[in-house]
Every structure is written in C-alpha cells, then in structure tokens.
TrEMBL record:
GO terms for biological process: UDP-N-acetylglucosamine metabolic process. InterPro entries: UDP-GlcNAc_Epase, UDP_GlcNAc_Epimerase_2_dom, WecB-like. Transmembrane segments: none annotated. NCBIfam families: NeuC_NnaA. This is Polysialic acid biosynthesis.
Length: 379
C-alpha cells in the first residue's frame, strides 16, 4: 500500500515548535510520508536562522521556499504571500502531496492553502474556528473556508465552524498540538536556563514576548516600552524575546535593544523550545501578547499578563489577565498576577494528546471520494 504523502509548511519558530511533536509522530507512521517546506522567518539570519533547528530535529530535511527580505510591512507580507503561492505550485506539482497540513493564521499558511486548493489537494487545517479580532482572524477564517478537514482545538471552535457553514462531519476536536509532551519537553531547571541567558539574582523573572498588530503597527513600539517600564518598576527581571517579523516589529526591536543596551533587560533572539517551555514554567509571569500565554502557559499554571488586542476574543484559561497597553494597567495586572495562586485546573485547549487524533483524522480521510474536495456552505 502506498504511503500517504503529508506536506507541512512552516514559516516561523513558533508554528514549528507547536507542531514538532505531531510532525515527529507523523514521520514515525509506516503508512505516511512527511515533507516539510520551510519559509519566512526560518530563513532570516537576523531572526535566528531557525531552519537549522528543523534540520537538526531528526525530521526529513526541509525544502526551502525563499521570500523577499526587507523592512517588515503589510505590503512585504502580501508580496511574500504571492511568492510562496508561486513556489508551492511548482513544488506541489512535482511532489503531489495527498494532504496539505496547515496550522493557524499566518500569511504563509494562507498562501499554502491557495496553492493547494487550486491543485485539487485536500487541506487539513489545525486551530481553525478561533477568534482574535485582529488581521489574524480573517486570515484564519479564510484558511478555514479553503480547508476540507478541520482539526480544531476546542468544542467552541468546532461550533463556530459549523455556524460558518463548514460540514460537521469534517470537523474534529483534537486539542492544541502545542500541548503535546510539553511537561516532558520542559526538562531544564528554570534558574539554569535564566542563568544561561544572563538572568540571575533573587528577583522574580518575567518572560516578555510582544508581537506587533498590523492595524496598530504605529503604536507597537510604545506598547512595548510601556510594558517594559511597568515590569521594571515592579522589580521584575525581564527576559525578552525578539518579536516576529510582521509590520511594526522594527519599532519593538528598537525599544528592546535600547533597554538591553542599558542592561535593564536581557534580550534573546531565539530559545530552543525545551528551554523556552522550561522558562515559562519557572517564571513568575509571562507578559506580552503571544498565543503561548493563551494556550501553553496554563498547562504550567503560569500567570499571564495579556496586553492589548492581539489575542482579543480567544478562549481564556483562568491564568490570563487582560490589560490595555498603558503602563498603569500593566502594573495593576502584575500586582494582581503576583498575588493570585497559580492556575491548577485543566487547560481548555486540550489534554496533550492531539497528535494521535490528528494522525487518525489524516488516515481516515477518504481520498478516493471526490466529494472530499467539494466546498459548499452547509447552510
């Protein structure tokens, strides 16, 4: 029996980290063949050249999809979506994957969905049906409307896709793949990780991960500055990671580098996922607007100060405190978080067993049925 060819496109350190356990599980299946295509931030030396992490992962060596480099902007993102579409049409025409697997809401994933559907290749989409209220949300929903098989994280997301007109029998709740094995992956002593990156002393440590929002790109730097001022005023040691490469990231990076040059924070380009998860587990706080705060941090009970609109409307665990971008609000959130017992209940995003459910859904998809490719609203 021929192996079922599964293609996965990765554009950032974040999505690859979330999917690594699932990709490893797919690669281990005798009846499946995995191909990884790497693009976007993975190829940028200034962002850690994280394609090397994929190459060292033990997974099949990734195929590179080159994009334009330059000042991050909405325009550059749109140009690169077009470039990725063109490159993947050529790659898929040769490789002929049976299923294209996508995660989330980034432009790279939208480009991959556009290429796949026009080549009559079924698309399986993970984390569809979620809200955010920023540009991520329409991109996520656009991918969902192009996708054929929906592998969602929560029951609420499933119901939302049903209301969007997706076929109920093509939607499966699998949980968030980023929760698979995170307890085992967080295998380092947090203090040793902090020390490795130059954070020492007895003061509580806050992890800071703050990404720009396209519609608010001009305010991104000020939001980062306000958060840093509030954390430092609260006596926290700050371990900050550089943001993604979207419009507004340059301003955030300038602020981070300014604080780092004054030795007020420690700035890191990239952390291996095992170290990152260990740091989240043992930090006093995770501050910023990353989906890590919404999804992964709850599995460790870590308090999260979620700033601004980037994760607006997404399902929350009780460890998340939402605040506006001004320093006074961030400061109040920090006080509240440090005074609140750590989160100890189940994570709404799943039980850490997404991979076997995803594999079962990919295996059960009937590729001989032409109706699989039919896309029509159910209402």
């Amino acid at each position: 029996m021929r192996q079922r060819r599964i293609a996965y496109l990765t554009g950032t350190r974040a999505d690859f980290g979330l999917m690594r356990s699932t990709l490893s599980a797919i690669d281990a299946q005798a009846d499946m063949e995995l191909t990884i295509y790497a693009t976007g931030m993975h190829l940028d030396p200034l962002l850690g050249h994280t394609i090397e992490e994929i190459e060292k992962s033990g997974l099949p060596l990734p195929r590179r999809i080159d994009v334009e480099s330059g000042m991050p902007s909405g325009g550059l993102t749109a140009i690169n979506i077009g470039k990725i579409v063109i490159a993947l049409v050529s790659a898929f025409t040769v490789d002929r994957p049976d299923i294209v697997l996508l995660l989330g809401d980034r432009g790279e994933m939208l480009a991959c969905a556009i290429a796949a559907i026009h080549l009559n290749i079924p698309i399986a989409h993970i984390h569809g049906g979620e809200r955010s209220g920023t540009v991520d949300e329409p991109v996520r929903h656009a991918i969902s409307k192009l996708a054929h098989l929906h592998l969602v994280a929560t029951s609420e997301s499933r119901e939302r896709l049903v209301r969007m007109g997706e076929q109920e029998n093509m939607i499966t709740v699998v949980g968030a793949p980023g929760l698979d094995g995170i307890t085992e992956l967080a295998c380092h002593n947090g203090k040793e990780v902090f020390s490795k990156y130059g954070v020492g002393g007895d003061s509580p440590v806050a992890i800071f991960l703050y990404h720009p929002v396209l519609q608010e790109a001009d305010e991104a730097a000020e939001g980062a500055r306000a958060a840093l001022d509030a954390m430092l005023a609260a006596g926290l040691q700050v371990l900050a990671l550089r943001p993604n490469s979207d419009a507004g990231s340059v301003g955030i990076i300038e602020v981070l580098e300014h604080f780092s040059a004054q030795d007020r924070i420690t700035l890191v380009t990239h952390m291996p996922r095992s170290e990152y998860l260990s740091a989240i587990r043992d930090a006093a706080l995770l501050v910023g607007n990353s989906s890590s705060g919404i999804i992964e941090a709850a599995s460790f009970g870590t308090p999260v100060i979620n700033i601004g609109s980037r994760q607006n409307l997404r399902e929350r665990n009780a460890n998340v405190i939402d605040v506006p971008t001004d320093p006074e609000s961030v400061a109040l959130g920090i006080v509240q978080a440090l005074a609140t017992p750590r989160f100890t209940t189940e994570n709404v995003y799943g039980d850490g067993a997404a991979a076997p459910r995803i594999i079962a859904a990919l295996r059960q998809l009937d590729l001989s049925d032409p109706s699989v490719m039919d896309k029509a609203n159910a209402y």
